[in-house]
Each structure stands twice: as C-alpha cells, then as structure tokens.
C-alpha cells in the first residue's frame, strides 16, 4: 500500500508540474526565510551566555533618582568593585571594566590600532576565557601588565607562547609586559576586545573616578552559587548612602544587579524598571518567521483545494472499493510530506547560498550548524509543523467527500468551505499588510533620523584621535592645519559630539534650591568649538583667546538655561550670570541653541560646555570646505605623518559615525523590507491558487456568459471583484493593528514621526495592485477560454 501511495504521489507531482512547482517554491521560500530568522534568533539568544558560571555573573547598575525622574545606566564609581568585594561575603570576585579604549600598539616595525579595555585583576577568574599562556592570577595584577588575544599574539610575535613576557608599546610612549594570552573571543561575546590593561592604572590616569561622587566605568561581580541575588540587591539599594555626599532627600543613587545573561537582550529601563531592549526585535522576528510559515502553509491549502476536483473521482473510486477515511488522510498527508521534504531540501540550499549576504547585512557570522543535533531537530520540527499545517485541511476535506455525489458529477463546494478558503486569503493579506506598514514606518523614521536638523552641521566634519605628538603639540598642529587648503576651522573636545554621557550635579547658580540635585551633561572643548560645529549662538559669545578669563567661564544650552530658571527674556538673560562648576566659579558667556549630542532615543538634556584649550585633546574636529574634503584629507594625512610619524593616521567622518548610532534600526528596516516582500510574494501564490480554483469552478458559467455576449473585460472584472473585496477586508482589519504595533515601536524614540493616514493608503494601494496583478493572469486566461470547450460536456 505504501508503495502504491508513493507512486500516486509521484505521478500527481509530475502530472501537475505547475502547481507542484508553485507549492514547492512557496513552501521553500517560507521555510528558508524562517530558517534564516531562526539562525539569527539563536545567535541573538546566545550572546553573553558562553560562560560556564554565567548564572552567577552580574553587572552592577545604578538607578539615579534626580530631577523628578529615574535614569538607569551601568556607570559606577571606579572604586566600587574593590569595596563590594570587601563588604559582601556573597561576592566571590569583582572587577571594574572601562569603556572601549583605542590605542596604537607596536612591536618593532609592526604598528596597528587595536581596541581593548582596562579590567580588574579578577577578570579572568570571573570569565572562563581560555588562557593560552600565563595564568589568571597574574594576568592583570600589576600596572605594567597586559593580556592580549591570540590574534594579537600571532600578529606581533608569531604564536601565543612566544608572546609571553615580551614587551609591547602603546601609543609610542608606554611599554607593557605580556603576562597572558587569551583565546580570541567568540562571536557571541558581548564584550569585544583584543587586549586588557590593569585596573589600578586606569584609576591612576583618571583620579576623578576615585571618589564615590563620580561614576563612569562598569562594575562586574560573581556571586557564590548559594547566594541569594534578591538579598544582595536589598543591601545594594542603600550602599552608597553615607559614601556619596551628594545624596539628599531629592537625589539618590540605588544600586542593583542585572544578570550577565540578560545584559544584551534586556538593556532598556524605564523609571528604574526593565523595559525590553534587543529582546523586542527577537520577538518581532520570531513572529515574522511564524507569519511566513503560516502564509506558505495557507498557500498549500489553497492550491491543493484548487486541484481538488481533479482528485475527487479518485477519492470516490477508492471509497467505493473499500478505502477507509484514515488511509485516505494518510495518503494525502504523505503527499504533503513528500512536497514539504522537497521544499525543505530546497530551503536548506537557499539558506546556504544566502547566508554570506545575510551575514553581511546583519554583521554576524552565522553558519549552518549541520553538525549539531539541535539543528536537525529544528529541521525535523519544521518539516512536521509545515507538512501538518499545509496538508491537514486538504487531507481532511478530500477524505470527507461523498463518493455517490462525486461519481455522479454533482460535487459542489458549500458556503462554509468557500468562506474558510477566503478567510485564509484575508488572513494572509492581513499579515502582509502588517509587514508593509511596518516597513514604511521604519523607513520613514530612519529617513527622519538621517535628515533631522541636529542643531549642528555634521557634513564635511572629520574627527581624528588626539594621540602622540598631536596631543602633545595640539597648538602647533592646529596652526599647521589652518594653513592647508580646504580647511575651514579646527577645534577639539573631550567627548565625541554624537555621544556625550558625562553628567554631574556639581553645578551652582544664584537662586538654586539647595536641596535639589539637577543633573547636567558637560564637556570640555577648545576654541572655535561652536564655530566648527556651526552651533547657533542665541545670546552672548563663543570662547575667545581675547578673553583671558574664559578658562573659568561657561557656555550653556537652552535646556540648561530653563533648568536654571532663565526660561525666557522676562525671567532674565543668563549671559553674565554667575555659575560654579565643581566649585570652580565663573560666568555664563554664551547661550547656545539646543543641539543633539546624544542619540535621538533620548531627549536633549541640560548641557554645560567648559573651555580646556590646553587639555590633552581626545577628539580633534576639523571642518573642511564643501567639495574639497578629499583634497583636504590627503593634506591632513601628510601633516599627521610629518608631526606624528610613529603612529598610523586614522580618521572618521562624523556623518558616518552618526549613521552607526542607528545600525540596529537600519538592519531591522532592511530585514523588514526583505521579509515583507517575501510575505507578499508568497501570499500572491496563494491568491493565484484561489483564482485558479474559482476559475475552475465557474468554467461553465463563464462559457454561458460569453455565449450571451459578455466581454472579456466584464468577465475579468467579475472574477477579480471578489478578490479585491478580500484584500479590502484585510486592509480594514490590518490598519488599526499595524498602527498599534508601530506606534509602540516608535515609543523608543524621544524624537519620532507621526504615523499619517497616507501610510495605510500607500500600503493598501500596494496590496490591491499586487493582488490585481496576480489575479489578472487567471482571470484573463478564463475570460479568453473558448466557450465551446467550456460547454461541450453539456
């Protein structure tokens, strides 16, 4: 019997090549898309979870309660890790961890810029990163120690063993001894670095972080396996009270633990409570994967039903000769399984071909894990789920046919069956509409981000790191730059103009409430900062070398003026008013229009700008003449090589760096567009099937209408009208759902677009247009059919 079923399945597959191909391709595309999404989700879920003791690792977070709101971040005092280890017996290990550092590392003639961090001595004891040379106990236990990755060891010394004990030079001025070589970090590592430096050295170079009142680096801890995180959290909540003198009735900092395994996916907090993060994208694309499978499975149902009249007599004969319904269901489910197996094989081939492009798009290194049993279990589950979804309805429907009615030729499909099939098409287009609207909204938000006036001009603005001789001789470097053709202005800043996370509440001014602790962002800049960024000066002036007292004066933005009570001209101008920053008295000399110095995810905060022309510059900013950037860049490179010959020339465009801030949103937008197009294409295959079914059922009706004089256009309109109604119903259902979902997504941005009516009109027009294009093939084919052939059986 099984052999007979296989023969019948094979013959039907060959006899109906067109429908079989559509079925296989539709299922393959749906499964290939889902497999790509599943691989992406699997990678996302694995990030930061590669450590054997990962369940005991935590990040210490701060809830800063000030100015009527709660701000959550990872910034902590630099001395916190050592104090926690002393005060909490539940803590086995603790380590500070700095933000990403960039240094030029050289050994002999081998020179290259590398990225790394400063980390506490317990780091390799906490994180089970394999050490290829050296031990965890001595890796970071002295200020002149450095631990490097296998990649760096092979680059500079040939192999890890040869690197141990050798000297490497950082920024051409400091030598460190290699005391450990660690294995290259895996792709799913949340922390990325190629070297680690001693924590005590970080504290020495940054004395401001050695007090409880200032925060900056991360603090990581490992709890004992038997420790209760809830009890540790309870003690951490008030840990800084009595240590941080700024804490008052209106200002508080409460520490708490975030599991290391949650740090990547759950990075967003609102009012001190975890509020999603990357997990939202994981959930979104998991739903998209299910949607694509559903749409592909529904196609199979519609196409199988469209061909059901061709199989009806076969079912009738089988039943008459004694076939049980269970055996018929088994036969049709077996045929569905055969088609699904072929589709799955094609899907795996497609995934293998598309993975390099998908990796390039998502900045991942995904591979088909053919050696992992879990992947084969996933394929088996996908096979069973898809074949069951696709084959269940046709199998149950065909096996239920009455043999007497079938063999008499009186088979007609009832209203319930028609309603069910049309409902499936409506469901398909609801899902497709959701994806179309989502794609349009994401595109518009990204366009808004890219074109929004940030309050400064990011075009033709170049940033180069202030290092080596450029830092030590900044004044000379600036003068030489200004002599070059194509250079407009030059300045420097402590922080990147795109990301300024430095905050303080150590600001005093006349009339300030002594019990308030208002947080101000702050940065240190050189002369011509406002001019170089093209900031708009509302009142007062920029810093100038003509005013010797400007080293103790300040520029503020509009948000800072409002927080200080200078809300409008009636309240008085802030220009000339006293201001003390960190107990350093001065005056406000300029009021700058608000500009975005952080991501658009957060609102513009009060900002104080200080002058530090003689500070060692972290970021040197150069504005070039429009249209002369390429020539100017060549001149800048030549000058840097002349003044800083032992360090490589590196630079970045502020505009390009701005785009990187929204890399996740850009990737999501691109993936949404691709999968929306895929969903529409697969849904149209289902619509094609239903159109074929309808045309087949109404063959004689169409023949009669043509004999009575109906035109081709009227018949096409007759057949197409019903399907357009289905798409219109889908639009009505999907529009409010799409608005709700995308409105929730936009809440993550402080500055966002409004979802306007035309978005739904555009999505609906696209859906109707694509549906009409799909239906027209079958409608025109049926309308052009010779009525003699349609009616000859009568």
TrEMBL record:
It holds the Pfam family FtsX. Keywords: Cell membrane, Membrane, Transmembrane, Transmembrane helix. Its main location: membrane. This is FtsX-like permease family protein. InterPro entries: ABC3_permease_C, MacB_PCD, Macrolide_Exporter_MacB. It is a multi-pass membrane protein. It is found in: Cell membrane. It comes from Spirosoma arboris. Residues 20-238, 431-637 form the MacB-like periplasmic core domain. The keyword Transmembrane helix applies. The chain crosses the membrane at residues 21-41, 281-303, 336-355, 375-398, 419-443, 671-695, 707-737, 757-777. GO terms for molecular function: transmembrane transporter activity. One of its GO terms (cellular component) is plasma membrane. The keyword ATP-binding does not apply. Residues 287-403, 674-787 form the ABC3 transporter permease C-terminal domain. It comes from the Bacteria.
């Amino acid at each position: 019997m099984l052999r007979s079923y296989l023969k019948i399945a094979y013959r039907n597959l060959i006899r109906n090549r067109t429908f079989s191909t559509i079925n296989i391709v539709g299922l393959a595309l749906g499964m290939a898309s889902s497999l790509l999404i599943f691989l992406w989700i699997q990678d996302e879920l694995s990030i930061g979870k590669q450590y054997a003791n990962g369940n005991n690792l935590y990040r210490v977070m701060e809830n800063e309660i000030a100015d009527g709101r709660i701000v959550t971040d990872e910034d902590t005092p630099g001395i916190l890790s050592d104090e926690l280890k002393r005060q909490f017996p539940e803590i086995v290990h603790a380590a500070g961890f700095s933000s990403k550092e960039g240094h030029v590392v050289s050994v002999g003639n081998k020179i290259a810029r590398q990225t790394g961090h400063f980390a506490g001595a317990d780091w390799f004891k906490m994180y089970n990163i394999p050490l290829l040379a050296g031990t965890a106990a001595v890796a970071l236990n002295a200020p002149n120690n450095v631990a490097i990755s296998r990649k760096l060891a092979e680059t500079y010394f040939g192999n890890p063993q040869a690197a141990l004990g050798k000297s490497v030079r950082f920024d051409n001025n400091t030598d460190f001894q290699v005391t450990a070589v660690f294995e290259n970090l895996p792709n799913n590592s949340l922390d990325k670095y190629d070297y680690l430096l001693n924590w005590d050295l970080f504290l020495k170079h940054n004395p401001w972080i050695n007090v409880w009142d200032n925060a900056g680096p991360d603090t990581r801890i490992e709890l004992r396996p038997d420790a209760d995180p809830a009890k540790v959290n309870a003690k951490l909540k008030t840990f800084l009270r009595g240590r941080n003198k700024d804490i008052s009735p209106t200002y508080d900092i409460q520490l708490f633990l975030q599991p290391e395994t949650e740090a990547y996916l759950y990075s967003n907090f609102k009012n001190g409570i975890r509020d999603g993060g990357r997990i939202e994208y994981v959930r979104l694309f998991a739903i998209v994967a299910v949607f694509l499978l559903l749409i592909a499975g529904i196609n199979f149902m519609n196409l199988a039903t469209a061909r059901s009249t061709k199989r009806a007599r076969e079912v009738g004969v089988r039943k008459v000769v004694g076939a049980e319904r269970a055996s018929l269901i088994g036969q049709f489910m077996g045929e569905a399984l055969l088609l699904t197996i072929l589709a799955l094989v094609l899907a795996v081939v497609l995934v293998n071909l598309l993975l390099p492009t998908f990796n390039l798009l998502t900045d991942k290194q995904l591979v088909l894990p053919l050696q992992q049993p879990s992947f084969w279990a996933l394929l088996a589950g996908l096979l069973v789920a898809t074949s069951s979804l696709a084959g269940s309805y046709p199998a149950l429907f065909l096996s239920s046919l009455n043999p007497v009615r079938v063999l008499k030729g009186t088979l007609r499909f009832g209203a319930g069956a028609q309603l069910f099939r049309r409902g499936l098409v409506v469901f398909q287009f609801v899902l497709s509409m959701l994806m179309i609207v989502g794609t349009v909204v994401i595109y518009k938000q990204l366009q808004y981000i890219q074109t929004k006036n940030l309050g400064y001009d990011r075009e033709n603005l170049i940033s180069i790191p202030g290092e080596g001789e450029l830092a030590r001789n900044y004044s000379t470097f600036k003068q030489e730059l200004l002599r070059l053709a194509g250079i407009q202005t030059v300045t420097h800043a402590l922080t990147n103009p795109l990301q300024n996370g430095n905050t303080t509440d150590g600001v005093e001014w006349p009339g300030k409430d002594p019990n308030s602790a208002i947080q101000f962002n702050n940065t240190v800049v050189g002369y011509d900062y406002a001019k170089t960024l093209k900031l708009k000066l509302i009142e007062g002036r920029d810093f100038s070398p003509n005013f010797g007292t400007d080293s103790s004066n300040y520029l503020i933005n509009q948000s800072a003026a409002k927080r200080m009570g200078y809300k409008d001209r009636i309240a008085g101008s802030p220009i000339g008013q006293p201001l003390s920053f960190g107990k350093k008295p001065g005056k406000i000399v300029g009021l700058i229009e608000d500009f975005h110095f952080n991501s658009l995810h957060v609102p513009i905060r009060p900002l104080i700008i200080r002058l530090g022309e003689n500070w060692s510059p972290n970021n040197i900013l150069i504005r070039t003449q429009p249209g002369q950037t390429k020539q100017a860049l060549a001149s800048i490179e030549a000058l840097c090589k002349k003044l800083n010959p032992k360090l490589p020339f590196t630079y970045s465009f502020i505009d390009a760096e701005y785009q990187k801030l929204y890399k996740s949103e850009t990737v999501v937008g691109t993936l949404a567009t691709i999968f929306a197009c895929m969903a529409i294409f697969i849904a149209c295959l289902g619509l094609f099937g239903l159109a074929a079914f309808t045309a087949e059922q109404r063959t004689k009706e169409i023949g009669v209408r043509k004999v009575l004089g109906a035109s081709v256009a009227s018949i096409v309109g007759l057949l197409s009208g019903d399907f357009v109604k289905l798409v219109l119903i889908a639009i009505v259902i999907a529009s409010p759902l799409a608005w709700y979902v995308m409105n929730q997504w936009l809440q993550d941005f402080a500055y966002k677009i409004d979802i306007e009516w035309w978005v739904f009109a555009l999505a609906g027009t696209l859906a109707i247009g694509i549906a009409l294009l799909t239906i027209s093939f079958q409608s025109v084919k049926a309308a052009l059919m010779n009525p003699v052939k349609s009616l000859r059986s009568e």
